[in-house]
Structures are given as C-alpha cells and as structure tokens.
Amino acid sequence: MSSIRELARRCGVSVATVSRVFNTPEVVSQRTRQHVLDMAAEIGYLPNESARTLATKKSNMVGLVWDTDHRRPGWRHPFLQDILVALKSALSAQGLHLLMLAPDQSAGLDPGQRFVRAVQRHNVDGVVVIDNGSRDPAVLALADAGVPCVALDLRFTGPRCTYITSDNHGGGRLAAAHLIERGHRRIATITGPLPAWPAVRRLAGFRAALAEAGVPLADTDIESGDWYLDSGHAAMNRLLARDPRPTAVFAAGDEMAVGAMRAIHEAGLRIPDDIAIIGFDDIEVAALIPPGLTTIAQDKTGIGTGAAEAMVAMLLGTAPPPGPTTLPTTLVTRGST
Length: 337
Known about the structure:
Organism: Actinoplanes teichomyceticus
Protein name: LacI family transcriptional regulator
Number of domains: 3
Largest sheet: 6 strands, parallel
Pfam family, one: Peripla_BP_3
GO molecular function, one term: transcription cis-regulatory region binding
Keywords: DNA-binding, Transcription, Transcription regulation
Strand content: 15-25%
Oligomer: single chain
Order of helices and strands: HHHHEHEHEHEEHEHEHEHEEHEE
C-alpha cells in the first residue's frame, strides 16, 4: 500500500496538502483536491483512520445503542434488521461507519452512565438509539451527554437530540377502520410491550377509531405481547378462551400476528372466515404465509435513511438539530381479513 509521501510526490504537492485533502477538504481548491483523489485511487492509497481521528478530532464513527432488554432476542427481529440495513447503507454513503456499542461494565461505574462511558471510550461522533421501551436511565442519559443523538421510535429530547418515528397512532386507526369496514364488531387487540411509545400510540389510535364507530373495546379484549412470535401465540390462545371469542384481532406487530395465526390454526379455526387478523410493520414474511397477512406498513427504509440524514445534519453543524420526523403508515390488504 502506498504512503502519503509517495502520493504527495506523484501529485507534486506537499504532504500537508495531501493531509488537508482527506481531513479538511474545504480548504483545498477543487482542482487540487480532485487531482489528489484521482492519484490516490490510481496507486491504491488509503488514509490511515487512526491518524485522521487524531488530526480532525472526529472518528467518522456513529455508535448504535440497541437496548432490546436481555430477555428479548432483539437482533433477530426482522423489522429492526430492515431498519439497520437502511441506516448502515445511508451512513456508509456519507463515509461514516456504524459501531454497535455495548454498555461499559467497569467496576464502580454509575449504572446510569454505562452508555455515556461507552460513547466516550470509543470516541464516536454521534449515537443512534433503538430502545425497547424500558426507558432505561442509562439510555436516557445520552440525551444530556452533549453527543448528537437520533432515536428511533423513542421521544428523545436534549440539546443535540432528535427522533424519527412512524405514525403509530394513525396506523392503529387504520387497522380499526379496516376491521370495522369488514363488518366486525367483536374486535380484540394484542398490544406491544406497554409502556413502549409505539405500543401506546398504536393502542390509542385503535381505541379512538373504535370509539368513534361505537364499537366497544373491553379491558378483556386487550392482551399484551412483546413484539415476538411466542407472545402473539400465547395472547391469541387467551383470546380464544373468551366466550364469545372475537371475530377479529389487531396484533400491533407482524411477528405477534404470525404467532396469533398459528394459534388460530391449531384451534381448528379458519382465517379470515372464523377470525380475521391484521398486523403492523409489513415484514417480509407477511406476504409469504398463507393466507397472507393484512398489515399496516411502516417505511422501514425511510426510518433508517431518515435517521442517517438527521445524524449527518447534526455532525455538519451548519444548522440547529432537525426536528422530530413522523413518517406515514399505510394499509396493505391481504387474505387474513
């Protein structure tokens, strides 16, 4: 691999000029910058990341705090995986790397500073936060730490913080309206983990639409889950034990909806003839399982890309942190309703 001195010699410029091209390109003329970059590509020169970090005080690294709770296999959830792919791709396009941050477990460290210390140790330029709804103080402490933060589906407030989310309330309303249009009046729901913000908002929108249509929703019509298959299966079995049982169910996450569908099939019932079911997320499997899951689609690519764009805007520091962003949700009708 060629050295910075070799690159400078071939370009006929000083080593300092080459360094500025890679570290502070705005101070170099466009002609010189392009000449150096073209020669760097020709001879296979790559700048030393450690040296660049020391020179610019920036690591070009964005930390990912993914607090899914040790009891939940968060890395496995397909909805979060899709967001992560979009986030990483958009950051990479801006020359930024994504680093998964584990909480610092140093002896004697205040537990509330576990993620703040991890940010400091790895010298990341900013942090993207995906929270499980637990409102962990160690996660919330990031908002006061001064590091740029973008949260997903979590209301994050602070001097250098913003968040991006879906219209969960509107999505809940869409789900209820669709089931009502299908003629259902005995409707139940399987919520996400309360008080996680997306779960609360989806339930609130669902309730509001039912109330406006004069359709009752008793406390016994509400079962809680944790976004995953097994919780949807267990919650559906509890709903099937009701007398009378519901004719339709809104599961606030597609994985829970798939688990609920399995319970319905195991009970010898037909979807949607005996029980209709609608989910939320529009993960890939929703279109693959029979009879096809009707669902409320979130813009997963938009969430990941939007988070990356907000982070880049804050790192550039040319304007105040962007305000919170809410992306629309849409109804995708398939065979389950």
